[in-house]
Amino acid sequence: MVKGANVGLAALSEDVGSVMVSLGWSSATGEGDADVSVLLLDGDGKVRSDVDFCFYNNPVAGNGSVQLLGKTPTADGSEDRISFDLDAVPEEIDKVVVAASRYGGSRFGELDDLRLTLADSAGDGLVRFSVEEADEVSAVIFGELYRRSGEWKFRAVGQGYASGLAGLATDYGVDIDDDAAEEDAREQGEQEQEPERDQGQGQGQEQGYAEEAPLPEPAGQPAAPARVPAQATGARADDASAAPAQDGPAAAPKPARRPRTAKKKVTLPRTARKSLADNESWRSARLFPVSALKSDRERETRATSVVLSVMAQVPEFGRRLTAGFGAPAGRMETFTEVTLPHGESPRRPDGVVRVERAGKLWTALVETKTNGNALKPDQVQAYMDIAARRGYEAVITLSNDVALDGSPLVDVRIDGRRKHKVALWHLSWAEVVHQAQMLIRHEGVGNAAHAWLLQELLHYLQHENSGCHGFQNMGAAWVPVRRGIDDETLCQGDARALEVIENWERLVRQVCLRLGGELGQKVLPVQRARRGSDPGVRRAELADHLCEQGRLNAEIRIEGTPGVLAITADLRTGKLRTSIEVPSAEPGYPLSRVKRLIRRLAEAPADLHIETLVDGPGAGPRGTLERLRPEPADIVPKDGAQITGFRLSLFKGMGSGRGSAETGFIRSVDEAVDRFHAQVVAQVEAPAPRRSRSEEPTG
Known about the structure:
This protein is α+β, with helices and mostly antiparallel strands. It has helices at residues 164-171, 178-188, 230-233, 296-313, 315-322, 377-390, 429-443, 448-461, 478-486, 495-519, 535-549, 590-600, 625-628, 665-684, and strands spanning 6-8, 18-26, 35-41, 53-54, 60-61, 66-74, 77-85, 95-101, 112-119, 125-130, 139-148, 151-161, 174-175, 226-227, 331-336, 351-357, 360-368, 394-399, 423-428, 523-525, 551-558, 564-570, 575-583, 609-614, 622-624, 643-653.
C-alpha cells in the first residue's frame, strides 16, 4: 500500500474477525528499536479514558480485544506484534490507531525499513505498508483500523510527530501534566519550542514526562481524561533526572513514580517460606505428580492435559499462548481424548482448544510431542484435513523443537480448492515455560489461586521426568560435522553443516527464552542480515562460514545491559567463549577509567579476560582480572590511543555430546551463558549512561 490508501479487510480475506498487525524495522548495528502503542478512539476521535491507551506497561486494552504480544525474532531482526479481535472491539470505538515511538533524542531516521504488515487469523499476509520520510520524528502513526458501514477497513497513514509520543497522545485526548511539558523541553534542549507534526497536520505540543495515570473512574461516573504514565513518555521510576528543572533553591526530590496498574497482581514470593518437613527427604504434595510417568505416551497425555487445563483456568496464561494464533479474547474451554472421524480410521488429536466470543467459536486441534520425539507429518496432515472439513481455524503443534522462519518443522500440503483456510502454528515447551515464568515471577496474575496453578505447572514442566525440557538434541549431523572440522574434510555446501546451523539457531532462541523468563526482561537474538535477505540464504552463508572457520557464532541482547552478549563455540579447540563489549564514555584519565571498571568487577571470576578497545586500527592490551587487580595500568594503551571500551570474556570447555546430558553441548552452552551473566554482565550493567526502552534489540 501507499501512504493515504485504504482497503476493506473483508475484500482481502474471509478470516478477518481477528487480525495480527506487525511493526518492523532494522538498523545497521542491530541495536536501534522503538516502543509500540495503540489508541482506541471514539466517534469524536478521542480516547474515552486511560483504558483505551495500550502500551508496553498496559499491554491489553478494549476489554481484551487489543493485546501487545511483544517482539518475535524474524529473518530480518524482530517484529512487534499486536493482536486485534475486531469482533470484540467495543461498539463505542470507531477507530484504532497503531503507532510507535523512540526516546532519549533518538529519531526514526536512524532506523531502516520501517514497515507494517497485517495478516488474517490464518496467518496469511493481507497488507504491507512501508513508511518513508520519517527522518526527524520520534513518533510515527503507521496505520489505523476504522469502521465504515459495519465493516472494518485499514488506512496506511505514515504520519510522524517531532514531539514524540506525548504530542501524539495529546492530540487524541490523553492528558499531559504541565510539569511534564517543562521536563520534555529541558531534555530536548535546542529543539523547537512548539514542534509540529510533519506534513503540517495538527499541532504537537511541547510535552515530555507525565504524572502517573489514575485508575479508571468508578462505574456510573464520567471517565476522566487519560494521563500518559511516566513510563510511556520516557521517564523511568528510578530515574532521578525525571524531576522537572526549576529556578531558585533546589526543590525536595519527588518520590519515585510507579507504573499504573489496574489492580494488584499476584506473583511468586522471592524467598520460600521455611518448610515444616522433618527432613529434606520429604516431598511436597503436588497437583500434577510426575513420579508415575513411565512411557512417552504417558508423558504426552499428562503434559497435554496439564497445560490445557491451566490455560482454561488462568485467563492470562491461556490468552498469552493463543493470542498470537489469531484466537479471540473470550471464554476458553480445553479438551483431551477427543475422537474425530477421518475416513475409515477415526483420529484422536491430543487436545482441542475452543474460545467463544459473541456467540462465535474459534477451534484449534492440538498435537503434542514430549521427550524430544519428532512431529509426524502424516499425523499433522490428517489434523489439517480434519480441521478444514469441520471449519476449524487452526492446528497447534507442541513439542521440544523450536520453529525457525523459512524452515518448517512439518511440511503439509494445502488444498487450494478448499474455501476454508486452516493455520498451522507451533509452540515449543520452552516458550510455554517462558510465558508461565513471565506471568508468575514478574508480571503477575489476577488472584492467588491462579498464581498457585502456574507455580504447579512450572514445577511439572521443569521436572526431569516430564519430558518438556525444550530443544535438547543438536541432531544426527552434529558428530559428523565435528569430525569433519577436526580432520578438515568438511566442505562448503555440505547439507550436514546447514543442519547444525539450524539447530544452533534453535538453541540460541531457547537460551533467550529461558534467560528472559528468569530475568523478567526482553532477551532476543541479534541477527545482522541484509534487509530482505532470505533466511535460507543467510543460513547457507553461515554454514559455509562454519565449514571454513569451524566456529558457531551468536549474539543476544538483554534489556538493560550495556552491550550485546556474544557466544562463540569453537569446534576446533572445543572452547566456548562468552563476551560483552562495555563502552567507556565516562570522563577521566585512562587509568582512572580502568580502575573504575575493575572495581565494578570485584566479584567477577579471576579468569575473566579483559581487552581494551581503542579508537583506530589495531588491538589494545589485554590480561586476566587476576593479574590486573594489582596492576590495572597493564591494560592502559602505551601509545596514548583513546580508549573506546572494554571487551570482557570468559572461556569454558565445550560439551562434546549432541544432547543436553551432563557432558552434552547444549548443557555446556546453558551453563556458560548463565555463569557469564551472573558473574560478569550483572556487575557491569552500567549505572551510567542510563538505557532507555528504545535501545532494545531488533533481532
